User: Which sequence fits this backbone?
C-alpha cells in the first residue's frame, strides 16, 4: 500500500502532492520512499545520487557518496 501513496488519485480526497513530488524528483534522478512503521507515523526518505548534491560551505564535491535526506 505504501507505494500507492505516490500514485495519482488513490483514495478519497487525495491531492497531487506526493505524486508531483515523486515526478519532479525522478526528473533529477532522485527517489522518494515512505519508510515509516505502521502506527508510528510517516517517514519519507529521499535518495540523492552521487554528484547531484552540494554543501554550500564545502568545496561542492559529493565525495562519490549517496546522500539520504529523511524527514
Assistant:
Amino acid at each position: 500500500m505504501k507505494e500507492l501513496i505516490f500514485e495519482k488519485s488513490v483514495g478519497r480526497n487525495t491531492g497531487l502532492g506526493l505524486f508531483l513530488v515523486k515526478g519532479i524528483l525522478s526528473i533529477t534522478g532522485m527517489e522518494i520512499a515512505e519508510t515509516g512503521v505502521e502506527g508510528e507515523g510517516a517517514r519519507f526518505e529521499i535518495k540523492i545520487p552521487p554528484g547531484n548534491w552540494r554543501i554550500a560551505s564545502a568545496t561542492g564535491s559529493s565525495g562519490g557518496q549517496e546522500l539520504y535526506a529523511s524527514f
Summary: The CA atoms of residues 10 and 34 lie 15 Å apart. The beta strands are 31-34, 44-48, 67-70. The first strand starts at residue 31 and ends at 34.
